[in-house]
Amino acid sequence: KMQQVFHRAGYQQREKITVHRRPLEGFRVPVNRLHIAIRRRTVMHVIDEPERRTWWEAATTTGVALRRYELRNKTDDVLGSATFWDMQPLAKGWGVVAAGLLHVDIEGPRRRQGLAHYLIAEAMHDLSQEGVALIEAHTTDANVPAAKLFEKLDFSQSGQGMLFEKPVT
After folding, report:
1. CB-based contact 99:132 (threshold 8 Å)
2. Is pLDDT above 80 for 110?
3. All domains of the chain, ordered by start, with CATH?
4. pTM assigned to the model
5. Between the CA atoms of 146, 150, 152 and 153, what dihedral angle is there, to the nearest 10 degrees?
6. If DSSP states are collapsed to H, E and C, what string results for the chain?
7. CA 27 to CA 122: how far, in whole Å?
8. Which of 5, 59, 134, 151 would you label with 167, given CA atoms 20 to 30 Å apart?
9. Would you say residue 21 has pLDDT above 80?
10. Residues 112-161: pLDDT tens digits?
């Protein structure tokens, strides 16, 4: 197994990663009181090719088409954002147009209010209108809230991976 190769080379298992996928065929944005209330008091901004926020994001996503969704209140404060990347040509072998969810960020005090669910659902709807047929997201085992969010949005687990690190000696 590959894991044994890494262990013999001095690497240690850091965390397990789960791959979640959601086909967008037939996807409908949930309609409930919470979503209606959020829609009334917020505005969604869609930014194609957004400015990279950190040097790491710039280094790892240069040459990759990004789309950022920002949820803002009526006074233009950012409540949260979600960034997707165009998975072509990787997904071309799957025979579908796919987008990968890179980040979901909800501002600290605004968490646990349904904003992430609303933001991702609206983004999925927008992406489906643009011809995207599949969304993929990754979570670590430690990120239970994200896994629960994807479960609520009917994502299914499609694979697992392992992140290894080599301790500095």
Report:
1. yes
2. no
3. 2-165 (3.40.630.30)
4. 0.87
5. 140
6. CHHHHHHHCCCEEEEEEEEEEEECCCCCCCCCHHHHHHHHHEEEEEEECCCCCCHHHHHHHCCCCEEEEEEEECCCCEEEEEEEEECCCHHHHHCCCEEEEEEEEECHHHCCCCHHHHHHHHHHHHHHHCCCCEEEEEEECCCHHHHHHHHHCCCEEEEEEEEEECCCC
7. 11
8. 59
9. yes
10. 778 899 999 999 999 999 999 999 999 999 899 999 999 999 999 999 99
Cα-based distances in Å from 39 to 22, 69, 106, 148: 23, 14, 16, 22
HSE (CB half, 13 Å, CA atoms) of 98?
A: 21
Prior bond of 109 cis (ω within 30°): no
From the number of C-beta atoms within 10 Å of its C-beta (0-12, 13-18, 19+), residue 67 rates as: buried
Q: Write down the residue that tokens 């949005």 correspond to.
A: 153
Report the chain's mean pLDDT, rounded to a whole number.
90
Tokens (6 digits) for 27: 């996807």
